[in-house]
Amino acid sequence: xxxxxxxxxxxxxxxxxxxxxxxxxxxxxxxxxxxxxxxxxxxxxxxxxxxxxxxxxxxxxxxxxxxxxxxxxxxxxxxxxxxxxxxxxxxxxxxxxxxxxxxxxxxxxxxxxxxxxxxxxxxxxxxxxxxxxxxxxxxxxxxxxxxxxxxxxxxxxxxxxxxxxxxxxxxxxxxxxxxxxxxxxxxxxxxxxxxxxxxxxxxxxxxxxxxxxxxxxxxxxxxxxxxxxxxxxxxxxxxxxxxxxxxxxxxxxxxxxxxxxxxxxxxxxxxxxxxxxxxxxxxxxxxxxxxxxxxxxxxxxxxxxxxxxxxxxxxxxx
Length: 318
Fold this sequence. Notes:
The protein is an all-alpha fold.
């Protein structure tokens, strides 16, 4: 888990992901200027993004529909050529090519999941860094009320929803913020103040934020609810997408089978781990994205039933 987290952190040095992350952040800022509420901004932005991506989900659903409907035919080929594995593989490949069965089409939304995950992680990290810097500047000016950054049980949405996380980032964490990545958002005077706050392990930051920290003495920032829900929704999405084991499509010849329960559990645990270590706003994005995917999958299953596809010209396999 830690190695994967470090790999994600290393994407800050990746120019493409960094640029896309900043673009998403800027788009969300435009939405937030209109909606004036970060949580609502993330939910609305994510729903719109899922709607834009829905054509890929439709292509994927049609491909999975065809794969599922092909199972009886694949089984007959396997039975007919059971004594000759090479011919069997050849016939299965011919069948798949003839009817346009492709694992790639069925995996289109999944292929975009990791890049979007990284891009939004970068965008939410940037938004969190900017917001925590703004909280510091606010405190430096004598305003110690951060209640506008709270949501339900979470005191600061720019910190993790965790019973182990402080409401206010420590001086050490503040000193690790890459200020050069967000310098265009602040004035030169503000940047000078932020750089001074980050010096010596965030010593000045700790002193300035002491009145804010005192308000939340003995409090944790959350209760692990969003990370747990995020992990649960990943598992639910996998179950809704793949269906029951007996209804899942047969693996396409020459393509890996990535739908195993072990892999789904790993992805769910990894999602929960990331949401536990990054700010609550990323967890809200990830939950919203997965919930939209679940709803869309259920709708598409009604429109395109799994076994409704009919293969023409395959009577010889009966």
